[in-house]
Amino acid sequence: MDELKEYMYINELLLIYGKTLTERQLKIMEDYYKYNLGVQEIAEELNITKAAVSDALKVSTRHLENLESIVGHYAYRQKVKALHEEIKNTSTLKEVKELLSKEEDDGI
Q: Are 29 and 18 a contacting pair, CB within 8 Å?
């Protein structure tokens, strides 16, 4: 997985499972993945070592990926999106296409 896809994947996992992390873990993960801060910047902001930040990132990422492997919410969402797109692209019924487009606009 390239770096951009990895960031996007971890951000999705944070949206889904982020509340299962401690406040500090969530802060570090969001600073790193959402706000694109470096390990050094996070360490200075939280007054901890770079090693502590790196460790928190590894532990938190493993936790999120473990939850995804058990629950599978992200994978399910990806399958639904793919099916949604397939139906929209292959359907000949104007009404179906319009409904699917409306769902997309509504964030469904």
A: yes
